[in-house]
Amino acid sequence: MNFPATILLAGGSSSRFAPLAEKNLFKFLGKTLVSRQIETLTAKGADKIVIITNEANLEKIKSEAQEVNPEVKVFVQVGEGQAGAVMTGLKEGGIEGGVLIMNVNDIFEEDLFNELQGKIREKGNNFLVGVYTEKYFPGGYLVIENGNVKKVVEKPGEGNEPSDYVRIVFDYFSNGNELLSVLESVESANDDVYEVALSRMMDEGKIFEMIEYKGAWETIKYPWHVLSMMQHYLEQIEGQQISENAQVAETAVINGNVIIEDGVKIFDNAVINGPAYIGRNSIIANGALVRDSMIGDNCVVGFATEVARSYVSDRCWFHTNYIGDSALGSNVSFGSGAVTANLRLDEGEIGVVIKGEKVMTGRAKLGNIIGNDVRVGVNSSLMPGVKIGTNTVIGSGVLLEKDVEEGKFVRMETELEIKDNNVDISTIKR
Amino acid sequence: MNFPATILLAGGSSSRFAPLAEKNLFKFLGKTLVSRQIETLTAKGADKIVIITNEANLEKIKSEAQEVNPEVKVFVQVGEGQAGAVMTGLKEGGIEGGVLIMNVNDIFEEDLFNELQGKIREKGNNFLVGVYTEKYFPGGYLVIENGNVKKVVEKPGEGNEPSDYVRIVFDYFSNGNELLSVLESVESANDDVYEVALSRMMDEGKIFEMIEYKGAWETIKYPWHVLSMMQHYLEQIEGQQISENAQVAETAVINGNVIIEDGVKIFDNAVINGPAYIGRNSIIANGALVRDSMIGDNCVVGFATEVARSYVSDRCWFHTNYIGDSALGSNVSFGSGAVTANLRLDEGEIGVVIKGEKVMTGRAKLGNIIGNDVRVGVNSSLMPGVKIGTNTVIGSGVLLEKDVEEGKFVRMETELEIKDNNVDISTIKR
Amino acid sequence: MNFPATILLAGGSSSRFAPLAEKNLFKFLGKTLVSRQIETLTAKGADKIVIITNEANLEKIKSEAQEVNPEVKVFVQVGEGQAGAVMTGLKEGGIEGGVLIMNVNDIFEEDLFNELQGKIREKGNNFLVGVYTEKYFPGGYLVIENGNVKKVVEKPGEGNEPSDYVRIVFDYFSNGNELLSVLESVESANDDVYEVALSRMMDEGKIFEMIEYKGAWETIKYPWHVLSMMQHYLEQIEGQQISENAQVAETAVINGNVIIEDGVKIFDNAVINGPAYIGRNSIIANGALVRDSMIGDNCVVGFATEVARSYVSDRCWFHTNYIGDSALGSNVSFGSGAVTANLRLDEGEIGVVIKGEKVMTGRAKLGNIIGNDVRVGVNSSLMPGVKIGTNTVIGSGVLLEKDVEEGKFVRMETELEIKDNNVDISTIKR
Fold first, then answer.
1. What integer pLDDT is reported at residue A15 of this predicted model?
2. Among A77, C67, C100, C344, which is 20 to 30 Å from C393 by CA?
3. What are the angstrom distances between the C-alpha of B178 and each of B98, B152, B210?
4. In whole angstroms, what is the distance from residue B303 CA to residue B289 CA?
C-alpha cells in the first residue's frame, strides 16, 4: 500500500508572520518548505497531493510544488478556517478514501510518515498525533483512553493538563467522504468548525488512535521561528559541499559543515564557520564572517560584515554590518556601519510586538525582522526585536527603537551647531 | 622637425573644483598633471614650453615643472580669460612661430601629439581638434567643410548640432605673431576674446584643418572628475610594481596590478585588490582593504578600513572607516566608524552643489569631496555628494547632509536622558 | 642579614582612581600589584611583611597576599593618613627594629631593594630615597648636605627647587620603636603627621642618608596611570609564551612578545601584535586585533574589534569595537560599532575631570576609563577622557561627552521623522 492522499494546508494569511512574506515559500538549504513537503510525500508514494492556499500565493506555490511533482494539485481555499481548507481539498481533490491533513510549515521527521503508513496498513482507524510535552504548552491537549484520543482540550491552563500529549496537525481520516459530510454538517460562529467536527466524530464513537511522536518538530508561527527552522536545517548539513563552480580565495577559511552553491565567490580572508548555507552567486567579501546562518542567492556579504545566526533571503547586500539573530526578506541592504542589536543591555528576554501586543520570544538574543525591499542607511542602529515593513527606508544614523510599517521613510532629525574652527589643522603633524 | 612651442594653460581659479585645491597639482600614480604634461612635451621635443598660471600656484607649478625640465618657463597670467593667458604666453615666452595651446588638465593619448606633429610636417595650416561624440555634449560644436573647421557653435542644444564633432582645446596656430595681433585687436565685453579671435581668423579665410580624435580624453572640471582621471591612470598600471623597500606581511594579499612605493608597510591580513597605487611610506594596516584607489604618501589606512574607488591625497589617516567613491585632500583624518555614504538610499543619481547650484554628476555612486586639513569624528556619517571645506572639523556622531564651508567646526547637538539604572549588572553572567 | 621588616601601604580610598576599583588589586601579566610586591619582598627574605589596608579591601588583599606568602599580615588602618597606617603597622605587626615603609602601588626596580639591603648592612642609618628629576615635579624636594637629607620641601614651585631630588616613599627607619614614639608625639591638624615626624627626627639630628635612585618608577595615582603601569609590565614579556592549552587558529598571526594563558582561543585571521597579554579562557575572535594591551580572563574580543594600548579587566566583551588607550574594569561590554575616541579632533592634550576639577593627563591619546559592570550600546561614541561609573548603562547611538556617575542609565533622545516612501524599492536592481 502507498501513502494516503494528503491535503497540505498553506492558506493562512500569516499576519502574525509579518513583515516577512509567505512562510511556506521560505527557502531552507535552497528549497522552499513547499518543495520539501512535496518531495517527502512524493518519495513516500502519496496517492494524491493537494495543496490549499490563498489567491495571493497560488501561482508561486503551484510553480514550486509542480516543479517537484507535476501531479500535485493546488487550489484556492473556499470557506473559512481549517474546515474550509480541508473541504476544498476533499472536494476539488476528489479525495474519498483515507486522507492525511497537515500544514506545509510543520516539519516532522520521516519516521512519523513511516509510522502512519505502518499503522494504516495494520488497522482501518483514524489517527491523531500527540507530542509528548514536559512543560505546559498553550495548545490542544489530548484526553487518552487505551491509546485512543477521546477528546481535545484547548489550552487547559498549566496544572489542568489532561495528559502529557499535545496535538499537532497530522490527522489521518480513514474516510474522506465521511469527513466531508461531518464538516458540512457542523455550524459554528467561531473559527473552529474543524475542531467541532473532530469532537463530534469522537463523540459518535469513531476511533482516533494516538500516534505518539517524540521526534523533532519545527513549525513557523512567529517570524523568529524562521531562525529555529533554519537551525533545524543547518544541523542537517553533512561535510563541506562546495560547488565546483564556486570560487574560494586561497586565504579564505571554511570551517565545519557548509553548503556553498554554484557561482558563489568567497574573497580573501573571509571566514565561514559552519553550519552555514551560501546560495547561488552570492559573494562573501574580504574579511567577512558568516556563521550559523543561511545566505540566499545573489547576496553580497560585504567587507568586514558579520552575519551570525541569521536568515538572509535573496539579493541582500551588506557592507561592514553586524547582522545577528535576524531574519531578513529579499532585496534588503544595509549601509556601512549599520547594526542589528541582538541583545538587550540588561540581557533580558526580548519581546516583539505582534498585532499590537508584545509577545515574548523566549530568546535573549534576537536582532531584527525585516521585510522585502528595505534599505537601511549607514551607521543606523536597530534595537532588538524591532520589525521593519516591506518597501521601507531607514535613513542614516537612525536609532530605531520601534517597529516601522511598510512603505515608510524614516529619517533622523538632527541639529548641528556650526561654528568657526579656531585651530589651524594644517599645523597638526603626526 | 621638433614639436612646436606649447602654451600650457593652468590659470583658472578652479572655483568649481572647490574644496579641492589646484587640480593641476593633483598627483596620479605619484606625479602631478603638470609633471606629466611636461614629461610628454619634453619627450616629444617641444621647442619651448610655457605654462601660464595664477599668482597663488606660481611657485608650486614652477617647481613641479622645472623638476622635470628646467627649461620650462612659468608666468602669471596678465589679462582676462583664455585670451589673456595665451597673450601672456606668446609675449613672455617670446613665441613667434607655430604654437600649440592646451590645458594642463586635458589628458590625451600620445597619438594626438604624434598626429599633430605629422600634420605640421605636411602642411603649414592651423589645426583644431574635434572629438567624435555620439550623444549631445554641452560644448563647442564644429562646423566642418572639406575637413576644415569653418565655425565653432557653442552649446547649440540637442538636435541642433552642426556636426558630430566637439572642439577640445588643442589648438595649433602656425603663426604666433599673427595670433597675438588678432587677439590684441579683439574687443569684447564677455570672457570670449579667444573664441572671437578664432572666429575672426576663420572668417578672414585662415585654414583651420580639423584633426579628428577618437582616443581617450580625460579632463577635470568638477571635483568628482578626479575619480575618472584616477581610473584612467589606474588602468595604465602594468603588473605588480612593488618597491624593494616596501614591507609586505606574509599574510597580506595583493591581487591585480599595483604600484607600491618605497617605505610602504602592508600589515597582516591587509588586502589590496588592484588596480591600486600606494604612495611612499604609507601604511595599510591589519584587515584593511584598498581597491581601485590611489593612496598618497604618508597615509595610514588603519585597521579594518575599506578604501574603494577613491582618491586619497598625502598624510590622510583612517581607522575602521569606509571611504567609497570619494576624493580627499591632504591631511584628512577619520575617526573610527566614520563613513562616507556613497549610494543614495533610492540608488538614484547623485547631485553635488557647485556654487549654489545642484549639478548632477551622472554617478549612482559618489561619496564625499573633502578639502585639505579636515578632521571627521568617530561614527560620523557623511551623506553622498556632500563636500567639506578645508580646515574644517566634523565632530563625532554627526549625520552630515549638507556641504560645510572651510574653517568650520560642526558639532552634533544631542540630548541625553540620564536616569537610574535599576538592574544590577554584576549579576549578569554569560 | 635579611631584608628588613616592611610595611606596605594599601589603605587609601583611591577616590582619585574612581571609577576604577582598588588599584592594588589590578592585575598585570596576571598578578595583582599586591602579589607582586609580596613576591619581591618574600624573595628578598623580608623579616616581616605587613600590609595596611581599609575595611573594604581587607579580605581581597589578604587572600592575594597570603596566597603568595602565608606569613604576611594584613591589618585595617587605625587613625588618619600615612601616620595612622604606619603606626598600625608597627604596633599590630610588632615591629621594633628596622622597618621599610613603602606603597604597594609604587613599582621600583629590584636594584633599589638590593641597594637598601647593602646600605643597611654597612651603616645603622635611616635612609630616604631621592629620584633624580630634571623637570620640575610637584612633589617633596630633598635638601641635601653631605649625602644626607636635612629637610623635605613640599612642592617648592618651579625655580625654587632646593635640589634635583624628589622624595619617593621608600623610607627606612633603623628603629621602629623610636619611629612609633615620634609619630605618637606629633600633633597636627593636617594630614601630615608622618611628614612632621620625619622633620622632627631630622631636626633632632637623626641621620637620613639619601639613596639616589635612577631606575624606573611606576606608580598609580590617577586611573590613566594604569596604562603606563601596563606598559611597564608589557615591556617585561620575553618571547612568545603561549600555553599548550591555548588554541590558536592556523591563520591567526602572533607577532612580538606575548603571554597567552591557558584556555585562550584565537580564531581565524585574528592578529596579536605584541607586547600583549591574553588572560585565561579569553577569546580573540575572527579578524580582531590586539596590540600593546592586556586582556583579562574570560573576555571575548569579538569580530573585527581592535584593542590598542588598553587595559581590559576580566569578563569584558567586545564586538566590532575600537578600544584605544582605555582602562576598563571587569564585566564591561560594548555593542557592535561602539567606539572609544582616543584623540581629540584638535589632537590636543586630554584632560580628565577628577573630583570636579579637570586634570591634564599629559597624553594626546586617551580613550575612556570605565568601571566594573558597564554596558555600552551599539554605535555609541565615547569622547576622549570620559569616565563611566560602575553598574552604568550607556544606551545605543549615544554621543557621550561627559562623565557618567555610577548606577545610571543614559539614553539618547532622538526624534524621527516618519513619512511615506514614494520609491518602489522592489524595482531597484543591482
1. 84
2. C344
3. 10, 20, 20
4. 9
Residues pairing with B159 in the sheet: none
Joined grid coordinates for residue A244: 565546483
Distance from CA of A423 to the nearest CA of C (A): 7
pLDDT above 90: residue C413: yes
Determine how many CB atoms are found less than 10 A away from the CB of residue C323: 32
| For helices B193-203 and B81-93, angle between their N-to-C axes, nearest 10 degrees | 80
**How far does chain B reach from its first CA to its final CA, in angstroms?**
83
Rounded to whole angstroms, the Cα distance separating B130 from A385 reads 62
Q: In the structure grid, which three cell numbers stand for residue C76, read together? A: 585595617
Which strands, in side-by-side order, build the sheet including A415-420? Answer: A415-420, B408-413, B393-394, B374-376, B332-334, B317-318, B300-301, B283-284, B265-266, B247-248
Q: Which residues of B touch A424 (CB under 8 A)?
A: 373, 391
Contact A287/C304, CB-based, under 8 Å? Answer: yes
pTM of the model: 0.95
B429 or A251: whose pLDDT is higher? A251
Decide if B80 contacts B194 (C-beta within 8 A).
no
A11 confidence band (pLDDT: 50, 70, 90): confident
Q: Residue with C-alpha cell 557647485? A: B354
Nearest chain A residue to C376, by CA: A345
Q: What is the pLDDT of residue C1?
A: 55
pLDDT at C388: 98
Side-chain-facing half-sphere of C82: CA atoms under 13 Å: 19
Q: How much is the pLDDT for B104?
A: 96
Find the chain C residues whose C-beta atoms sit closer than 8 A to any C-beta of A. 249, 251, 267-269, 286-287, 303-304, 319-320, 335-337, 346-347, 375, 377-379, 393, 395-397, 412, 414-426, 428, 430
C-alpha cell at B262: 618605497
Q: Report phi then psi at B184, rounded to 5.
A: -70, -25
Segment-wise mean pLDDT, segments of 10 residues, chain B, 430 residues: 90 84 95 96 93 95 96 94 94 95 95 94 92 88 93 90 93 96 87 90 94 92 96 97 98 98 98 98 98 98 98 98 98 98 92 95 97 98 98 97 97 94 86
C-alpha to C-alpha distance for A366 and C349, rounded to whole angstroms: 41
Q: Do B287 and A269 touch (CB under 8 A)?
A: yes
Q: Specify the DSSP class assigned to residue B383.
A: P
Q: How far apart are CA A168 and CA C326, in angstroms?
A: 55
Q: Give the tens place of pLDDT for each residue, C155-168.
A: 899 999 999 999 99
**Distance separating alpha carbons of residues B268 and B212, to the nearest angstrom:** 50
**Domains of chain B as residue ranges with CATH:** 5-219 (3.90.550.10), 225-410 (2.160.10.10)
Contacts of residue A253 in chain C, CB cutoff 8 Å? 249, 251, 268-269
CA dist., res. C196 & res. C190, Å (int): 10
Summarize pLDDT for A169-217 with one digit per residue, the tens. 999 999 999 999 999 999 877 788 999 999 999 999 999 999 999 998 9
Q: Is C341 helix (H, G, I), strand (E, B) or coil?
A: coil
Cβ within 8 Å, pair A251-B251: yes
Distances, alpha carbon C254 to alpha carbons C245, C288, C302, in Å: 16, 12, 17
Distances (CA, A) of B182 to B157, B194, B202: 29, 9, 11
Distance of CA B143 to the CA centre of its chain: 30
Residue with cell 557621550: C400
Beta strands in A281-425 (DSSP E): 283-284, 289-295, 300-301, 306-308, 311-312, 317-318, 322-324, 327-328, 332-334, 339-340, 350-354, 357-363, 369-370, 374-376, 381-382, 387-388, 393-394, 399-400, 408-413, 415-420
Instruction: Enter the C-alpha cell of residue B167.
Output: 572642439
